[in-house]
Backbone:
């Protein structure tokens, strides 16, 4: 087949995948759909990179994450998690650690904390495009719907702009979607169920360490396994939930103990410190310690 | 707190975030549920269950006062809704063959879209009578146009709208373009003083971050300053943004093309110090009938939000006190207030009203049931209206809130704090409606106008030769919003002092808001900087970003050097 004709045929298939007729629904070429998905992912990446490199300012909270990422890059993860450098000087950094931690890794390459955090958001935003495709395809078994979801996630203006900002929400969205995808795999496939739920438990902990409300998604994922995995017997469902919870708790318990050691308080998440700490004492110490110019 | 209001606020914000194609997709998915999910509804429900649970948690946290809500807080579960929306849009593309159904759907979308547009762009009173008919005609035309359109063209149009509209929205301007001025100020300061990395008081964190210094929020100054030395010598710079607003009086900002003087009217005005106890004010000259008394926004000596309440308004005087919002203890420090008493009646020039003052009884307590007040005659331009409750038998804090002001009249209702009780009843309200061109009435010189403002932030207003800080205090509210709607605010300066009358002229959002006046600046820090002669070293005239240097810092450095 001549290259031009082959391209033309592929384009026709692509169009028919995005806007299929009833009879095309089950005949669509998976290969063409994958090709289309790559095009959409490339489009999403291009748009986000353009937005990242043309961004002109930061949001009000961004400096806290940027400073935390800097501290993590220079003095290690735990120093950033302590965060005694942030006004109003809590005993622990009330800003959760996973987002700035990823930023601190990129900081070694970019040298700019804000840019690093934007790139983390952008990467999560791009990662959501194939995830959206995969979730839609798994739920409804239609390539067309998966591609439509991917396209919409790639070009949705609000979401794309958030992906180029110093916002942790896009990263949480990616983590929640990833965990949900793994749970869907568990429900629909036979192989490596325990590995998938273990991975989902770890990802949900990371989501919880990025935004506290992600705990709702963790509970939701557990309920989905318990009540929607109709093809799996009850005993196994309970075992799967137990594995997911165990992995979550295996990461959470050391985190709780570390917070107890650092602050003297029993906390489940650093975010709570903003309510618990007596900030006045810390600012006085800070002012006292300032060496001047 | 009103749970329904709270949830509706959140739904509203989710809809905003999804944007038009997203909402259309979701709506279509629900509308064509069986065809969209094809027997997989149980599994598909995951896409709702997780977001709904998440939204309820976020709403619950805002309802309990635990956090304020921004649109981006919903984004973590947003991709799941996008999958729902994509399913709906996919089905929509497939359904282009079914003309009656599609036509009906498009018509509904157009009607909703145009109603939204009409509500925000055209004054409400103008579009109400004609819009329904216009919509019906347009919809019929659209329906038949679509019916004759080729299917591929229609599908292309939908995809083009989905992708193209989003791309335009996305690439319209760079991310956080509105923060460029703060970034420039910070970068300038970095170049100006590259060695300093100490404290800087700033309205926003952004310039301090770009300056590489340590941020102290201006809003914390009242709390941090007492923990520092008396002249804040530990802080070398302050970065502040002053938004100075010129009043609009209908003839362009800050300009008056016509002046109207009304000498034959009995008016008395004065200032008073007011706290939470009733204080009697006597008029110098007795009125023939109970006058209308309106008051300025109170000063900001005490931080607790509240408003002035009048009672026993008679021909010889009245009583006034400051009522705090319900969640405070009620005891309040002295505040400065200007009052204005004016005889009831109407003044006309060339058959047009220029001033109307009267007393009315109000029992409406909701925006939906706002009571209409007609002047009986017309103003030439939309007047500015000031009101005050002159008699109310309940002790709770209630505001008279205006809406739908036009040349013939206005609507008014009594607004109480969200969650508070005991605000229902009948109140006697005095109103003063005035043409902004009026420059003198009786023996009092005045200057009136309006501006549009977002109530989330205070404003520095230039009125005549004085600058007055106007601060908005939002009462406790269910949605804990950061981002408020813009409201039109009417102002009037009476005499030469800065105690201005201020009142909202619109009710685009029903947040319970009280006004306070600040003599020379909106924040404590602005006033401190002026009082202690900090030097201006940078000014961005476009956005009025100022950088000040603390003169005491150099002495501190010297002292430390000697030690």
Residues:
């Amino acid at each position: 087949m001549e290259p031009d004709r082959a391209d033309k045929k592929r384009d026709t298939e692509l169009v028919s995948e995005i806007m299929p007729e009833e009879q095309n629904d089950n005949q669509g070429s998976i290969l063409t759909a994958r090709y289309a998905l790559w095009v959409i992912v490339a489009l999403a990446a291009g748009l986000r990179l353009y937005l990242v490199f043309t961004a002109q300012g930061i949001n009000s909270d961004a400096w806290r994450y940027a400073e935390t990422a800097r501290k993590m890059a220079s003095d290690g993860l735990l120093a950033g998690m302590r965060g005694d450098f942030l006004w109003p000087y809590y005993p622990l950094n009330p800003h959760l650690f996973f987002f700035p931690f990823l930023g601190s890794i990129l900081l070694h390459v970019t040298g700019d904390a804000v840019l690093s955090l934007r790139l983390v958001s952008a990467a999560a935003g791009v990662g959501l495009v194939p995830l959206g495709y995969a979730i839609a395809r798994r739920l409804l078994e239609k390539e067309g719907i998966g591609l439509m979801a991917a396209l919409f996630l790639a070009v949705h203006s609000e979401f794309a702009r958030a992906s180029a900002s110093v916002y942790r929400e896009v990263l949480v969205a990616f983590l929640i979607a990833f965990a949900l995808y793994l749970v869907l795999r568990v429900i629909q496939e036979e192989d490596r169920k325990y590995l998938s739920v273990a991975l989902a438990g770890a990802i949900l902990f990371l989501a919880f360490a990025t935004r506290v409300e992600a705990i709702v998604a963790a509970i939701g994922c557990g309920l989905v396994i318990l009540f929607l995995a109709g093809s799996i017997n009850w005993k196994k469902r309970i075992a799967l939930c137990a594995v997911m919870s165990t992995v979550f708790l295996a990461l959470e318990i050391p985190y709780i103990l570390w917070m107890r050691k650092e602050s003297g308080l029993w906390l489940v998440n650093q975010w709570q410190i903003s309510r618990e700490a007596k900030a006045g004492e810390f600012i006085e110490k800070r002012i006292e310690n300032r060496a001047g110019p | 707190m009103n749970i329904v209001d709270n949830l509706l606020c959140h739904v509203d914000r989710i809809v905003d975030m999804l944007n038009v194609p997203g909402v259309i997709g979701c709506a279509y998915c629900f509308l064509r549920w069986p065809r969209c999910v094809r027997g997989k509804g149980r599994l598909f429900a995951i896409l709702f269950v997780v977001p709904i649970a998440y939204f309820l948690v976020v709403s619950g946290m805002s309802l309990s006062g635990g956090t304020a809500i921004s649109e981006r807080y919903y984004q973590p579960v947003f991709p799941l809704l996008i999958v729902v929306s994509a399913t709906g849009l996919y089905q929509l593309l497939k359904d282009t063959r079914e003309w009656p159904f599609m036509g009906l759907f498009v018509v509904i979308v157009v009607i909703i879209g145009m109603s939204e547009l009409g509500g925000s762009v055209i004054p409400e009173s103008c579009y109400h009578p004609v819009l329904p008919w216009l919509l019906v005609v347009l919809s019929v035309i659209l329906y038949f146009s679509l019916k004759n359109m080729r299917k591929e063209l229609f599908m292309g149009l939908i995809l083009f709208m989905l992708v193209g509209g989003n791309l335009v929205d996305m690439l319209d301007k760079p991310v956080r373009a509105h923060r460029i001025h703060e970034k420039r100020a910070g970068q300038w300061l970095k170049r100006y003083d590259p060695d300093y990395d100490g404290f800087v008081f700033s309205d926003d964190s952004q310039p301090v971050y770009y300056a590489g210094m340590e941020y102290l929020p201006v809003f914390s100054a009242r709390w941090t300053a007492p923990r520092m030395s008396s002249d804040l010598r530990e802080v070398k710079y302050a970065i502040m943004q002053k938004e100075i607003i010129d009043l609009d009086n209908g003839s362009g900002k800050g300009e008056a093309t016509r002046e109207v003087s009304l000498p034959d009217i009995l008016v008395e005005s004065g200032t008073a110090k007011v706290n939470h106890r009733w204080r009697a004010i006597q008029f110098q000259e007795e009125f023939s009938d109970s006058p209308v008394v309106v008051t300025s926004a109170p000063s900001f000596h005490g931080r607790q939000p509240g408003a002035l309440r009048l009672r026993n308004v008679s021909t010889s005087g009245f009583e006034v006190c400051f009522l705090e919002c319900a969640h405070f203890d009620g005891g309040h420090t002295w505040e400065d207030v200007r009052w204005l008493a004016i005889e009831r009646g109407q003044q006309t020039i060339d058959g047009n009203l220029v001033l109307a003052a009267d007393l009315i009884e109000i029992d409406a307590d909701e925006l939906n049931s706002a009571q209409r007040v007609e002047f009986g005659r017309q103003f030439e331009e939309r007047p500015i209206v000031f009101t005050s409750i002159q008699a109310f038998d309940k002790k709770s804090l209630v505001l008279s809130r205006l809406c739908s002001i036009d040349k013939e009249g206005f609507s008014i209702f009594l607004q109480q704090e969200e969650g508070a009780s005991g605000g229902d009843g009948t109140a006697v309200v005095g109103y003063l409606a005035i043409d902004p061109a009026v420059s003198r009435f009786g023996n009092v010189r005045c200057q009136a106008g309006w501006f549009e403002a977002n109530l989330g932030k205070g404003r520095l207003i230039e009125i005549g030769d004085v600058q007055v800080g106007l601060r908005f205090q939002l009462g406790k509210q269910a949605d804990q919003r950061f981002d408020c709607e813009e409201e039109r605010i009417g102002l009037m300066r009476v005499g030469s002092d800065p105690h201005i009358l201020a009142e909202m002229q619109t009710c685009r959002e029903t947040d319970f808001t009280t006004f306070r006046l600040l003599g020379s600046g909106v924040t404590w820090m602005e006033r401190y900087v002026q009082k202690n002669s900090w030097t201006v070293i940078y000014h961005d005239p476009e956005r009025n970003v100022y950088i000040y240097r603390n003169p005491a810092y150099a002495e501190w450095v010297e002292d430390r050097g000697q030690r």
